[in-house]
Specification:
- The structure holds 2 protein chains of 2 kinds.
- Chain A is of the alpha/beta class.
- Chain A is built from 13 helices and 22 strands.
- In chain A, helix 3 links the parallel strand 16 and strand 17.
- The radius of gyration of chain A is 26 Å and the shape is elongated.
- In chain B, helix 11 crosses helix 12 and helix 12 packs antiparallel against helix 13.
- In chain B, the strands form 5 sheets. In chain B, strands 8, 18, 19, 20, 21, 22, 23, 24, 25 and 26 form a 10-stranded mixed β-sheet that branches. A 6-stranded antiparallel β-barrel of chain B has the order 1-2-5-4-3-6.
- Chain B is of the alpha+beta class.
- Chain B is built from 16 helices and 26 strands.
- Classes of the chains: A alpha/beta, B alpha+beta.
- At the A-B interface, strand 6, strand 12, helix 6, helix 7 and helix 10 of A face strand 1, helix 1, helix 4, helix 6 and helix 11 of B.
- Bound molecules: adenosine-5'-triphosphate and magnesium ion (MG).
């Protein structure tokens, strides 16, 4: 977009004070252009006041001598070129952080959404700063979610960023709510604080989550940032940032363990694409901007732990895969940044298996450091590896069976078919209220392995076989 | 040229700043932008307008702010104190920055890359007067327990050495030698600066000879890389690029390792920082950190500094190569570097080529990979840089521009396969899609070491794996049952090779690293099993009875049961294998 000052229009423009200007040059989608200004910085917060006196917030996307391009978070409908006033605030968007945020709901820009008072507290730049890699503490504390498919095979650890890759209509809500309810550190009694960012989700979805928090008595530990489907889409661009600013404060200033739910990142990315298209930037795949990776990283990397600080931020973003396509740029780039992914599978869902967590494409990269002796159990790593390997083989046998018919399978192949069946029906599948301990999960894993002959178990040591197999 | 104002900011678009009223500026000159003195580099000049890529976040930067030229290009400091450090993409020491500004990296903070306080013990190894030229060793400093740092005459200095400091302790800025040159006397210190975008000179480029042993069986045995070679590791997310790079950084037999985390995760760098100091290098018996240097420009750090990070890394690697060391450099991931290039190019409104990448992407890739190689240094030593670059193709699709262009400039291709990774077959390196053009360069080394024909064994197993791939198509349609035993043996041996040999768990204490000798014997055992079993089957022995032999279970476990320093156990295993099959043949045959 051309941001050079267009001099024709500037005659009526009047400088109100050194930071306030009247008149816009251009309105295009959620973006406005102003000129005849000075001393305005990149990423600076702007207030746009329309003729009725309503104020909207915006941020400079580009500044040049005498002109700026501003994205207006609350949309531009009703703005007129002539009488709109723009006030620059001299700093980026900030959030006032304090302990009083707990139990409250805000909009995507951090303003009260629950009719409560304006928050008071230290103002923090919502964009955050990158953590110095030497300041990080490596996450290794096992979080028990009570869900076998996660605890047993894709273990979550405190300070990890582990997204749920879902599809429309798949039960990611129930799953995320169940994780939030059940997540705990075995042997510690401190519950997680929850920061919830809702981006472009519907009212009933937001209500589902909030009701859930309430019912589990967690509401006083929850801060919600809601930019719902009927709010202007650009506001979503700030929502995860305000939410993470709150999370950083709770974790690193107050020492809390924070679980951050970001839903739905796909809506976020669409808003980013909208702005990028509007500015006629050169797109990369599927019209998404070339900087989508860096932009997502600036959100997902705001998870983790800091050396010498007690708190932590564990992120569970929800990503809806358009058309269930995991190679779509949004899940793809997310997967390149996060520390694994929990993938929901439509086929399992249709067969009535809850939670429908896909066995093979799901992965937790920090699992290795959070499991084993003294953390979960010594046999955990080998058991999980064996379950993965055997289940992978099930997939091959199933496709063979679909060609030659099940009757034609060898005895061994048939035992794999059986293993696959009980893996899905007994291990994966559990109730939305069912909270399994890690021991229950691991014992269950050994139990179902018994449907396979021991010669097939290459990932397990002799000693483990003696100790657990056929017990 | 000294520091001076060269213009003022006219426009700010993310990491790209346009400066106006510019005079007397040089292309690629280092500049400081605005009152916060953000570090940047001039990347385009047109009339009195210059474009600057800024290595720090430009939030709050305003038109009208001054741009200050430094009169020199973006350079790194080369001298003792590099090893064990962790730098960002423009060589700012992250541990020092943390002490200055806390847990988060903010802007406008400067710190020298090499400590000005630390003193090093210097032992001269030349006696003046004598002639010296670029690359000549003036003396040595014990930089870490395992690396002796050779203080080199900078490449551009040539003349009569008139003075060298006596044995003793010096700081990095002290003069330790003086060379008389036609242009006057030049005082030399422990360190000098070198522009990152310019390769350091050497005397002669040599053909690669001998492998870089990585300790990873699938790599060393099937797809070896030569010392001085270049490899690319492409793979979709979660397929194991970083694990491969980490494993090589830990166990390869290079003298030192430069690891560049280019636009990847913060925790991965933290992982290296916490793990490496604890790990013992099997060759030196000392901590791995003693030979390692890290460059960390994580995905959320400024994108322009990400672009610079791989040049910072390779320049440091060249510097140690010039001392006569074998250096291995890992860049994870070059795709993030290419994306940085794309983003900067887009912000400068350049014409895009494939998928928005600038048309000069292949040139830049070639320039980077060309800086690897085995050379005779200016000082007359042999030194090498082996480059291992990761590529992260969108959707795991290797037909995208970065993978395709990179393929043109590298000679080994380690393709990571999603299916293998999903089945937790690690390292998930596809034996069908990967290749290495270094076989001829490394075969003599293996043959000499193993006193036999390594090359033949390698082709035997590759042939079996290819046959298996073809048979699998049949099996998918009709099942394995209908195949004769001679063909099912191929499936069995392939499965054995995958499980017992190719899979290597990076987290296993015994198996994380496998010495070359062990790799060879293991390979020999599996190929021998195939040969003898095939003979036995011809003589009427059934495959089922062969599979039931106790020795088969031992083969499956040999990687765990026979540690690197107890290889005689494998020899025993080989004998047992021969005897067992012989026995079976005499009973049933
Ligand atoms: N050799 C190995 N041994 C054991 N586990 C492995 C091995 N290689 C990969 N893995 C497993 O695969 C996971 C992903 O590997 P890695 O982080 O290297 O992927 P990547 O290709 O670098 O992904 P990304 O592009 O997203 O960074 C690891 O966390 C680990 O669990
Ligand atoms: Mg990686």
């Amino acid at each position: 977009m051309n941001s050079q000052a267009s001099t024709a229009e500037t005659s009526h423009r009047r400088l109100l004070d050194d930071r306030e200007y009247v008149g816009l040059d251009e309105v295009s989608g959620p973006i406005v252009g102003v000129s005849g200004i000075h001393n305005v910085g990149y990423n600076e917060l702007a207030e746009i006041v329309d003729r009725r006196g309503t104020t909207r917030l915006g941020m400079t996307l580009e500044v040049s001598e005498g002109a700026a391009v501003i994205q207006v978070f609350e949309g531009t409908s009703g703005l007129k070129l002539g009488d709109t006033r723009v006030r620059f605030r001299g700093h980026p968007l900030t959030l006032a952080v304090s302990e009083e945020m707990l139990g409250r709901a805000f909009d995507g820009l951090g303003r009260p959404f629950d009719g409560g008072p304006e928050p008071i507290g230290e103002e923090r730049d919502v964009n955050g700063l990158p953590v110095n890699p030497t300041a990080r503490d490596y996450p290794r504390k096992f979080i028990q979610t009570g869900i076998s498919a996660i605890d047993g095979m894709n273990t979550l650890v405190r300070g990890q960023k582990l997204p749920v890759f879902s599809g429309s209509g798949l039960p990611h809500r129930q799953l995320v709510a169940q994780i939030t309810r059940q997540a705990r550190i075995v042997g510690e009694d401190i519950p997680f604080a929850v920061v919830f960012a809702g981006m472009g989700i519907k009212h009933d979805e937001a209500r589902f989550y909030l009701k859930n928090f309430e019912e589990s008595g967690a509401m006083e530990r929850v801060v919600a940032f809601l930019s719902l489907a009927d709010a202007p889409s650009v506001e979503r661009l700030m929502t995860p940032r305000t939410a993470l600013t709150a999370a950083e404060y709770l974790a690193f200033d107050l020492g809390m363990h924070v679980l951050v739910i970001l839903t739905d990142m796909t809506n976020y990315c669409e808003a980013l694409r909208e702005i990028s298209t509007q500015r006629q930037e050169i797109p990369s795949r599927k019209g998404y901007p070339g900087y989508l990776y860096s932009d997502l990283a600036s959100i997902y990397e705001r998870a983790g732990m800091l050396r010498g600080k007690p708190g932590s931020i564990t992120q569970i973003p929800v990503v809806t895969m358009p058309n269930d396509d995991i190679s779509h740029p949004i899940p793809d780039l997310s997967g390149f940044i996060t520390e694994g992914q929990i993938v929901l599978d439509r086929d399992l869902d249709q067969r009535g298996i809850y939670p429908p967590i896909a066995g093979l494409p799901s992965l937790s990269r920090l699992m290795k450091d959070g499991i084993g002796e003294g953390m979960t159990r010594a046999d955990h790593a080998h058991l999980a590896s064996q379950l993965f390997a055997s289940y992978a083989h099930v997939k091959d046998i199933r496709s063979l069976a679909s060609v030659i018919g099940e009757e034609e399978l060898t005895a061994l192949d048939r035992s794999y078919m059986e293993f696959g069946e009980i893996f899905e029906q007994q291990f994966l599948s559990q109730g939305p209220e069912e909270d399994r301990s890690i021991e229950q999960t691991l014992d269950l894993g050994w139990k179902i392995l018994q449907s396979l002959p021991r010669e097939e178990l290459h990932r397990i040591t002799e000693e483990e076989i003696r100790k657990y197999y056929g017990r | 040229m000294a520091e001076r104002i060269i213009g003022t900011v006219r426009r700010v678009v993310g990491p790209v700043v346009e400066a106006g009223n510019v005079t007397g500026v040089e292309m690629l000159e280092l500049v400081f932008v605005g009152d916060e003195r953000l570090v940047g580099e001039i990347v385009r000049i047109r009339g009195d307008v210059a474009w600057i890529q800024v290595y720090e976040d430009t939030t709050g930067l305003r038109p009208g702010a001054p741009v200050i030229g430094q009169g020199e290009p973006l350079s790194v400091e080369l001298g003792p104190g590099l090893l064990g450090s962790i730098y960002d993409g423009v060589q700012r020491p992250l541990d020092v920055l943390r002490m200055q500004m806390g847990d988060f990296v903010s802007r406008g903070v400067h710190a020298p890359a090499l400590s000005r306080e630390k003193r090093w013990h210097f032992r001269p190894c030349v006696t003046p007067p004598c002639r010296v030229q670029g690359g000549a060793v003036l003396g040595v400093v014990q930089e870490t327990e395992v690396i002796e740092h050779r203080i080199l005459t900078p490449p551009w200095v040539e003349g009569e050495l008139v003075r060298v400091a006596p044995d003793g302790d010096y700081g990095i800025e002290d003069t330790v030698a003086t060379v008389s040159t036609p242009g006057g006397d030049v005082d030399l210190r422990f360190f000098h600066k070198w522009p990152v975008r310019k390769g350091r000179p050497y005397a002669k480029r040599l053909a690669c000879a001998g492998p870089l042993i990585t300790g990873q069986r699938v790599l060393d045995t099937l797809f070896p890389v030569a010392r001085g070679g270049v490899v690319v590791v492409p793979g979709g997310f979660g397929t194991g690029k970083t694990m491969v790079q980490h494993a090589i950084a830990k166990w390869c037999d290079a003298d030192l390792v430069v690891y560049i985390g280019c636009g990847e995760r913060g925790n991965e760098m933290t992982g290296v920082l916490t793990e490496f100091p604890e790990l013992i290098d099997p060759r030196t018996g000392k901590s791995l950190m003693e030979r390692t240097l890290l460059i960390a420009n994580t995905s959320n750090m400024p994108v322009a500094a990400r672009e610079a990070s791989i040049y910072t890394g390779i320049t440091i690697a060249e510097y140690y190569r010039d001392m006569g060391y074998n250096v291995a450099i890992m860049a994870d991931s070059t795709s993030r570097w290419a994306e940085a290039l794309r983003e900067l190019s887009g912000r400068m409104e350049e014409m895009p080529a494939d998928e928005g990448f600038p048309a000069y992407l292949p040139t830049r890739l070639a320039e980077f990979y060309e800086r690897a190689g085995l050379v005779t240094t200016l000082g007359g030593h042999e030194g090498s840089i082996t480059t291992i670059g990761a590529v992260s193709p969108p959707g795991g699709d290797f037909s995208e521009p970065v993978t395709q262009h990179t393929k043109r400039f590298v000679r080994a291709f380690w393709a990571l396969d999603k299916q293998l990774a999903n089945a937790r077959h690690y390292p998930a390196i596809s034996w069908l899609e990967s290749y290495s053009e270094y076989i001829d360069d490394v075969a003599p080394w293996w043959d000499e070491k193993t006193n036999e024909s390594w090359r033949e064994l390698r082709s035997d197993i590759m042939a079996i794996m290819q046959k298996e791939a073809r048979l699998e198509h049949v099996v998918k349609l009709v099942g394995a049952d209908v195949l004769p035993d001679s063909q099912r043996l191929i499936l069995e041996v392939a499965a054995m090779f995958k499980n017992a040999f190719l899979q290597q768990n990076a987290f296993d204490k015994v198996d994380a690293f496998c010495v070359a000798e062990k790799q060879y014997v293991m390979l020999n055992i599996i190929v021998t099993f195939y040969t003898l079993a095939a003979e036995a089957i011809q003589k009427g022995v059934t495959l089922a009875s062969l599979k039931r032999m106790d020795v088969v279970r031992d083969i499956m476990q040999m990687k765990y049961e026979c540690p690197n320093d107890e290889l005689n156990r494998l020899d025993t295993l080989l004998k047992e294998l021969e005897e067992s099959i012989h026995e079976l043949t005499s009973i049933y045959g």
